[in-house]
Amino acid sequence: MSSSFGKELKISLFGESHGTAIGCVIDGLPPKIKLDLKLIEKRMLQRKPGQSKMTTPRAETDQFEILSGIFEGKTTGGPLCIQIRNADRQSDDYEELKKVFRPGHADYVGYVKSMGAYDPRGGGHFSARLTAPLVFAGAIAEQILAEKGIKIVGHIKSIGQVNGKSLSEFAHFDEELADLDNQIYNIFPEELEAMLAEVDEARIAGDSVGASVEVSVYGLPVGLGSPFFDTVEGKLAHALFAIPAVKGVEFGDGFTFAHKRGSEVIDAFVLDHQGNVQTNANHNGGINGGITNGMPLLFKCGFKPTASISMTQETLNFNTKEMTNLKVKGRHDPCVAMRAVPIVKAMAAIVLLDLLIENLGVGINA
Amino acid sequence: MSSSFGKELKISLFGESHGTAIGCVIDGLPPKIKLDLKLIEKRMLQRKPGQSKMTTPRAETDQFEILSGIFEGKTTGGPLCIQIRNADRQSDDYEELKKVFRPGHADYVGYVKSMGAYDPRGGGHFSARLTAPLVFAGAIAEQILAEKGIKIVGHIKSIGQVNGKSLSEFAHFDEELADLDNQIYNIFPEELEAMLAEVDEARIAGDSVGASVEVSVYGLPVGLGSPFFDTVEGKLAHALFAIPAVKGVEFGDGFTFAHKRGSEVIDAFVLDHQGNVQTNANHNGGINGGITNGMPLLFKCGFKPTASISMTQETLNFNTKEMTNLKVKGRHDPCVAMRAVPIVKAMAAIVLLDLLIENLGVGINA
Amino acid sequence: MSSSFGKELKISLFGESHGTAIGCVIDGLPPKIKLDLKLIEKRMLQRKPGQSKMTTPRAETDQFEILSGIFEGKTTGGPLCIQIRNADRQSDDYEELKKVFRPGHADYVGYVKSMGAYDPRGGGHFSARLTAPLVFAGAIAEQILAEKGIKIVGHIKSIGQVNGKSLSEFAHFDEELADLDNQIYNIFPEELEAMLAEVDEARIAGDSVGASVEVSVYGLPVGLGSPFFDTVEGKLAHALFAIPAVKGVEFGDGFTFAHKRGSEVIDAFVLDHQGNVQTNANHNGGINGGITNGMPLLFKCGFKPTASISMTQETLNFNTKEMTNLKVKGRHDPCVAMRAVPIVKAMAAIVLLDLLIENLGVGINA
Amino acid sequence: MSSSFGKELKISLFGESHGTAIGCVIDGLPPKIKLDLKLIEKRMLQRKPGQSKMTTPRAETDQFEILSGIFEGKTTGGPLCIQIRNADRQSDDYEELKKVFRPGHADYVGYVKSMGAYDPRGGGHFSARLTAPLVFAGAIAEQILAEKGIKIVGHIKSIGQVNGKSLSEFAHFDEELADLDNQIYNIFPEELEAMLAEVDEARIAGDSVGASVEVSVYGLPVGLGSPFFDTVEGKLAHALFAIPAVKGVEFGDGFTFAHKRGSEVIDAFVLDHQGNVQTNANHNGGINGGITNGMPLLFKCGFKPTASISMTQETLNFNTKEMTNLKVKGRHDPCVAMRAVPIVKAMAAIVLLDLLIENLGVGINA
Question: Could A362 and D357 be called an inter-chain contact, meaning their C-beta atoms sit closer than 8 Å?
Fold first, then answer.
C-alpha cells in the first residue's frame, strides 16, 4: 500500500480518521516562499465539515501544526510536515465494523488488504478526513502558482438533477470568478438555491446525492506535460481519482466528444488582439497531445453519492454469513461535493506545480 | 519530456511516426513466460490500420523484431525490447507543417516543447502509431494475467449517436464475449451495422466521429491498489489518457453517479452460491477506496473525433501571422475507436500486471 | 531538494535540528507486524548522544510519538509517521552562521541551495540529528527481516589508527555477535580500550577522528537485487552516503581487490555439510552481479572525522570577504562513528526490506 | 529485475551478450542538441575490446544504429533509442554453463533470479558488454555538460601494485588532462609502462589483476544534490556499482579519512584571485552534505580482478553435486579497468546531467 505521490513535488500522506493525528510531508517545495496562511485557512475552512446542515456536523477542528520546513515564515526548501491532531475521537463499537462491512465503502477491501490488521474506526486511513492535509498542501501549491500568474478556479457544476453553468464560459479569470472563489459552497449565486434544495431533499430522506465539480486553470504556459504516459490529463486524473467518491474525470468536452463529429469541435489557431496565439474554441480543455496549449485547462470530476446513508441497507454479516440490516451510524455528508471543490483544486494545484517545477527546475522561484 | 511508465513493470516507449523505427523496452517481466505469439499477432492485427475503408489505408507493416529478453522462446526476466521498422515513410513537405499547425493536434505543443527541434512528419513521437508497441507489451501482460485467471474484455461501446450494450450485463466471461474478442472491430454483431454506418457517413463527409470504448476485467483478486494516489482508477486513468484522443475516463456508473441518489446505487455484500463474497450490483465497477473488490473491473474511455479531417479548416499560418485554409493531407481514420479497443485493453493489462506484481512479488510466476 | 527514498518501502524524512520536530513517514510497511518497541528503544539509545564523554553532551530526549499506521499495537499497512519534538532548542546567534560558514559542513551549500532561506541553527535539515527517525524506521525493518531469518550485525571496525577485527571472521551469527549487538559502542571487548583511547586523545586535543563501520547480514535469500542500476551494492550505497560523514562504501574485499590477482580471490562453489550451496570464501561480500548469492552480505563505510572541532579554524567571512578565526561553538562528537553503527544498520535494514518486499510482494508477511 | 535508472534523464538498458542486439532508450534528453558523433565514437572506441593484447580479443563491432529521437541531426527531446547488433555470436556449449557456474560471476544468481530461464551465453543480460550502450548515453551527457562548462576527466589510478598520481593534483582542467583524455588507456604517460607490465604479467600467468579508476569533474555549479538520500555521492555510487566488477566507491579522501584527525582535513573557505569562493583544500571531493560545493568533484572506484581467468578452478558441478575442474573458455580481459574509464565517466555524466536538469528544468538548453 502506498500513500505517496509526485515526482518533483512529493506528498507523503499519513493518518487515520480516529488515530492520533493525520498530516503529510510535502517534499520538494521551492525555497523562500512566504506562506500565505490566510489562503491556507480559507481553503481548509471551505473543506471543513460542520459548516451547516448541508455537511456532516462532525466538529473536526482541523488545527494544523507545521512541524518542519519553515524558518522565519518562509519555506526552506526542506520537507514541510504538518500534523492535525484528531480531537474528536468518538469511541465506536468497532468490533462490529469488522463483521458488517458498509456497502460502497472501503472497509472490506481495507480489511483484506491489511490481512485483518486495519483500523476500522471511521474508515481508518481510507477516510475522506485525509483530504484535510491535501488541502493544506494544495493551498501552498496554489499560492506558488498564483505568484507565477496561474489561477485555479473550481465550482460545483451539478448536484443530482440540477446542472449549473460551465467555466468554459469564462475565457479569463474575472471578478465573478473571484466572488465564486470566496463562497463556502463554491456555487454560482443564481444556482445556489436549486442545488441546496437537492441536497436538502436527500438529507431529509436519509439519503445522499451525487454531484460534479468543474475546474478551470488560467495562465498556464504552453508546454507542460508529455505525450506518452505523463500527459497532463493522466497526471491530473491519477491524483483526482484518489479523492474519495470520484468515479469519472474528463477534460474539455470529455465524454461529449464521443457523440460529436470532428468538424464540430475544431480548435483553430488564431491570434488575439495582443498578437498571442489562441484557439478560437477550447473543446480540448487546454491540452493537446497531453501537453498544455496555453488555453484554460478545463476538467470535470464526477462524484458518486456517498455510500453512508441513514436508510437501512441489507448486507452480509461476514461472521454469521447471513444477511443483516445495517443502519450506518454516525454523521454523514448528504453530498460530498459540498466540500469537494477545495480538494479538487488542491489536487490540481499539486500536480500542476509538480509539472511546472519539472519545466523550470528547482530554482523556479529564483 | 518523458515516455516511461510503470513501477514494477516499466515501459520505455520510443520512436517517431516517420523515423527509423518505433518500439519499446518492457522492463520487469516475470521470467519463464513462454510468449504467446499468436495472441500478440491477433492484437496487433486488431490495432493495425488499413484493414478496411473504416480505417486509414496507410499500409503499416507492423512487423516487430524482438531484440532482447527472450531465450529459447521464454522470457528471461531481463528487459524485452522490440522494434518495428518504419517501412512506409512518405516524404511530406514538412517545412509546411512548421508553419501551419493542424488544429486539435499536438504539432503546436510539440513544436514549443522541443524548442522547434521536433520531427513534424506524421506527428513525430506524438503519433498514434506509437500505440503499436504498446499493444505488443499489452498482449504479453494480457497473457500473463490470463494464466492467473484474469480475463480482459473490451469493445466499442458507442460511435457517434449509436450507443451499444454494456459489458455490465456480463457478470462472467462467456462465449459471447469470447466471440466479441475475436472480431476485428470488437463490436457486438447486433450493433455492427449501425455503428459502421456512423463511421461511413462521417468518412463520406470528409469528417470524423467520436466514440467510446468499454472494458471489463474478470477474475481480479481482492486487494490490488491503494487508497491514496495509487488507486486502481488513478493508475489506469494515468495510462489511458496517454492514448491519443482519449478525453474522459470513468469507472462503474461513472458520471451517471453524479445524478443519482445513494440509495439507488448500493452494492450490498452477498454470498454467491459457492459461498464467495460478491456484491449484488456493481455500480462501483469493481473498485472501492481505490482497491479491487473482486467484482468485474468496469471502465469506459471517451474518444474525441480525430482532428484529422479532410474538410478545409481555417487556421493560423504562424509564419505570415495570417489565417489560411488548411486541408490536412494524408490518410486518416474517420473514427479512431475502430482500432482503439486493443490499445485500451493493452493499457489496462500493463497497469493491472504492474499492480499484481506489486502484490505477489517478482516471483509471481513461481 | 528531496528527502524521500525507497521503492516498495518509502521513507519521507522531515525536520530541522532546532525546529519544532523531526520525524519521518514510513510508507509501504507490511501489515500485521506487532512492533518490537524494546528493539526500537535499544537502537535509538545506541544512536543517542550524551551517553558519555565519548559523544556530544547534548541532551536530546529522542522521545518519539507514533502518529499513525498502528492499531492495537500492530502495523495496519498504512503509512506510519513518527515525530520527535525538539526539546533542547538552544538559541544560537544564528545571524553569525550566515556570515561564517563552518568548513567541511553543509552550511554553505545549504545556503546556496535554499537561496538564503535555510534554517542555519544546528545545521537545520542537514543535521545528523535527522538520523534519529531513520534509526526508528530501521529498527522496524530490522525486526521484520529478523522474523524472516535475516540478521544484521554491525560494529566499529576502526577508529583513527586502531583497526579491529573483521566480521568476515564470522560465517554465522553467533553468541559473540549477539553480545556485540548489545554494547552501546558496538566494539568488540578486546578492542574497546584502544579505540576509546583514540577518541579520548582527539577529544582532549579539541580535535576529532575518523572511523569505519562494518556490517554483515546473515540469512539473506539468493536473488535480491538487479544486475543493472538497482544492484544491492548500488541501492545500499545510495542510502549509506546519506549518512552524514560517510565518504566511502565498499563490499567484500572492496578496494583491496584493486591490488589483487584474480586467482587470489576466487569464491568457488561448494556444498556445505547440509547440502546447501556455499562459496568457500566470501571475497565478493555476498553479492555477484549486483544480486545476493546467499553468503553473508559484508560491507564497510568510511567516516570522515567530524568537521566540528574545538580548535580555531581560519576561514572566510562571507560578509566582509576577509579571513577570520572561527571557533565552532557547541557540543561535538569527537568521533561520529561512536553513534553511527545503529544508523548504518538502519539504512541497511531499510534497503534490504525494500528489496525483499520487491521479491515477495506486499503480502510478505502472509 | 530492473534495468532502468534515472529521474529526469532515464536510461532503459536492454540486451544479452549473445542475443540479437543490445542497446538502450535514453528518455528525457534536452531537445535541440546537435549530437557530437565524433565524441561518441571516441568514447566507444576507448571502451571497445580487441584493441590490443591488453584487452579481450573478442571482435565486437559496436556499430550502433540510432532508432529514434534525432531529427536533422539534433535531439528532439523525445526518447533516443540505439541498438547495437550482436555480430560476433559464438555458439557456446551453453548447457554446460547451467551445470558449472563460474565462480565470481553472476551465472548462479542469474540462474536463481530467473528461475532457470536465463540466457547463459556470455553472461546474458549480466554481461559487461551491456556497458557499450551506457558509454553511448554517457557521451551525449558528457557533450551537454561540456556545453555548460562542465568537464569530466578519468584515468586509471592504479593497477595491481602500481599506483599512479591523483587527479587531486589538478585544480583545473588543463592540457595535460586533455592529452590523457585522448589516450586509449587513459593512463598518464609516465605511468604507462609500469601499469601495462602488471597487466601483461597477469595475462601471461593466465590470471587477472584488479585496478582502480579515478574521476574528477570540473566546473560543476554549487547546489546539485540533496542532503538526505539523493546525495551526489549516493546517486553516483548507485550508478557506479552497476558497472561490473566495481566493489568500492569513495569520494575525496574517502577511506583515508577514517584514519585522520579533523584538524588534518579542513577545507577552509577562501576567495580566489577572481573573488570566487573556493576551499583551500578539497578533502571532501567537491561535496558537502551531499551537495556540490563548487570544487572539483573527485571520486574513485575499486575494481576487482575479473573472475574470468584461464587458470583451472575447482568448483561445484550443480548437476552431479561433485567438485569439478573448470577452465573458463573464451577470451578474457586480464584487467577490466583497461576499458573501464569511459564507462565510469559515462555513469558520472549520466548522473550529473540528471541532477543538472533537476536544477535547471527541462529547458536546460534554452
Answer: no
